[in-house]
Specification:
Elements: H1 2-12, E1 23-35, E2 43-50, E3 56-61, H2 64-70, E4 78-84, E5 91-96
Antiparallel strand pairs: 1-2, 1-4, 2-3, 4-5
């Protein structure tokens, strides 16, 4: 039953939600610069993506490394994001993905 609640939370959140070690493949749909709610006066990037089930989700990230990666991805490109670590040690590995046949 707890897994049902966890899935409900993921499905109904407008943002991507990751479990430690989880990988998600998404279609990159673009980005915009938004204020960083945790660091007043600073900005971060909000990436718009489409999940495998066709839902539009957002991923907010202030990393320059991530921004440099996405600068080389065309809209409509597939990207795999993997969460590593927990809490303040959370990091993301990102790579271009290929269509699975």
């Amino acid at each position: 039953m707890a897994n049902d609640l966890k899935q409900w939370a993921k499905d109904n959140n407008p943002n991507l939600v990751f479990e430690p070690g989880e990988s998600i493949t998404v279609v990159y749909k673009g980005y915009k610069i938004v204020p960083d709610a945790f660091n007043p006066g600073k900005e971060k990037v909000q990436y718009e993506v489409e999940t495998e089930d066709g839902k539009t989700k957002f991923w907010n990230n202030g990393s320059g490394r991530v921004a440099m990666f996405f600068s080389g991805v065309e809209e409509g490109g597939l990207v795999t994001i993997t969460a590593t670590g927990e809490g303040m040690k959370r990091r993301y590995e990102i790579e271009k993905a290929n269509l699975k046949k």
